Amino acid sequence: MYLVIGLGNPDEQYKNTRHNVGYRFVDALIKFWQTNYSFTDFKFTKKYKAEIARGEFDGKKIIMAKPTTYMNLSGEAIYLVEQYYKIPEHNIIAIHDDMDIPLGQFKISYDSSAAGHRGVQSLIDHLQTQEFVRVRIGIGKPAATTPEKYVLENFTAQENEILEKLESLTQTAVETIITKGKDEAMNIFNK
């Protein structure tokens, strides 16, 4: 069983912000999987403090989650899901924004520090390990504002176009992690 997480903030005002790129990519992934496989829609589940969807890909059960605890408390929700379904930490895939990667690129990492990302740090704190896979979606660095303000700004129309082109590639990367393992996925996509 795998747990695929999109990190973000639940309110509508954050929908198109840089910090919500994890939600965005998980939404795109489930839309594709629903077209080709049997997956439920996301549904809020109070006991997990998250929106949850379920399905199966490549013979493996998949739980998809979008924590509704806000970015900096994401670990609260993910811990509840992980414990209930007894998902090994190395089968957790967290998709999130990363300012250290240029817009239009992504990187897969495993067993790495949060590097200042508070949502990822919350996962590490609650799971008590950093041994999970991360798909880090590049949002670029702020030019003339603080990082805290930058991540809460909306993407421009041009930035949205760049991200749309990246969605199918990251979908393939997540599928590769599930079918061939994280090491193979890192060899293919981290170039």
What is the strand and helix layout of this fold?
Blueprint (H helix, E strand, L loop, with lengths): L1 E5 L14 H16 L6 E3 L4 E8 L2 E8 L6 H12 L6 E7 L7 E5 L7 H10 L5 E6 L8 H4 L6 H24 L1 H8 L2
The CATH superfamily is known as: Peptidyl-tRNA hydrolase
How are the strands of the biggest sheet laid out side by side?
A: 2-3-4-1-5-7-6
- How much is the average pLDDT? 96
* Helical run tally: 6
Number of strands: 7
Distance between the terminal alpha carbons, to the nearest Å? 28 Å
How is the main sheet built? 7 strands, mixed
- Approximate strand percentage: 15-25%
Question: What's the CATH architecture name?
Answer: 3-Layer(aba) Sandwich
Write a structural description.
The chain has 191 residues and is an alpha/beta fold. It has one domain: Peptidyl-tRNA hydrolase (Rossmann fold, 3-Layer(aba) Sandwich), CATH 3.40.50.1470. It has 6 helices and 7 strands, in the order βαβββαββαβααα. The chain has helices at residues 21-36, 74-85, 118-127, 147-150, 157-180, 182-189, and strands at 2-6, 43-45, 50-57, 60-67, 92-98, 106-110, 133-138. It has a 7-stranded mixed sheet with strand order 2-3-4-1-5-7-6, sandwiched between helices. α2 packs parallel to α3 (118-127) and α5 (157-180) packs across α6 (182-189). The two termini are 28 Å apart.
